[in-house]
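Please produce the structure of this protein holding 5-hydroxymethyl-3,4-dihydroxypiperidine.
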Amino acid sequence: MTIAFPENFVWGASTSAYQIEGAVHEDGRGESIWDVFCRVPDAIRTGETGAIACDHYHLWHRDVALLRDLGVGAYRFSVAWPRIFPDGRGRPNAAGLDFYDRLVDALGEAGIDPWVCLYHWDLPQALERRDGWRNRDIAARFADYACTVANRLGDRVSYFLTLNEPSVTAWLGHATGEHAPGLAETDAFHAAIHHQNLAHGTAVDALRQENEGWKLGIVLSLAPTRPADDSQSALEAADMLDALWNGAFLDPIYHGRYPERVAPLVDRYVDSGDLERIARPLDLLGVNHYARLYARPDRAAVAGLAMGAAPAGAPTTSMGWEIDGGGLSETLLRLKDDYRNPPVFITENGAAFDDIPAEDGRVHDGDRIDYLREYIEAVASARTGGADVRGYFAWSLLDNFEWAEGYDRRFGLVHVDFETRDRTPKDSFRWYAELAHEGILR
Ligand code: IFM
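Below is the modeled complex.
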């Protein structure tokens, strides 16, 4: 079966700053919460850090050349907030802005549209010392930072995305403690939900004031939720997970209110005018999707429930995440039915597998090609069902630092040798290049 995508459908690839840049002490960059978290014993399964990562800070020319070979029309990357405001406030660090300026120029020369994500989890540690996402003041700090970046790059960049996956920051960073800043506290969890929404809305207002022509959006991690077993309590946990994971971010943005189950939890952080500000119209919604989420009650957990990403016996990636493109089409059709069918770009989708270079020096990752084909087919089927999906960005361009999992969860279209930093395009790279070139899924 072949599926033709429209000519203006955007094909892209995604990365994020802390996962690829390295150079954490260079050119005046301040510490981020991830630099600190990586030093906590056992926080990272492999004991590794993002200190060097793919060394993209030095090898970015090579990575732009790879993007050109891949033939994608767009590249989504994130700006490291602590490179711009090492102390969280004050005067911006010129060297940090210069780095992204050069990158944007090089992308322009290569004919690739830069999509700038302003926050992909690397909060300046200086702001964490002032209670990070627990402190309402972060909304103003974020809007300031967003305008500083956009005013520098926005003569060549049209697309700005505010936050990446606020549900993950709230949940893993503040409820389970698996991500930086490593908190597992009820109040922190609830405050982080609302203050991220508020930061998004405040930044959108500020950016619109600077330039009405910029295309603005947010990137949400969205997934259908399911009960982990057929008990009534698991069913309730799945409904609650849906409200906390999906609704807590979608509903304020598209309906101007929190879901019924979430409102009483965040109420005390919500001031008058907040919800109007969060609900300002957007140009697009970025959707990151990998797998459905399976919920079961867990009284000891901050959120009162625990989640997994696969039922027993399901085919999975090396993250243990279920492989089933049906979860993506379901997510997209729900956006159409329940959220007024916003213009959507899949800003992340992809799979980690245990890729090992073969004797011929190549990486034969047929499993990744099968995965991508299945999920891109799901995009096509949601489009046929009326969902307004306008683009797809593969996660990720490069193998990179997979947060608490370290470097051996390889998501890249390009294999990275973390000893030498050599880059080797995998078979999936060539497959995706053909798709991006022809717009035809085979
Ligand atoms: O690597 C992450 C990325 O930083 C955010 N979305 C999910 C990816 C895979 O876990």
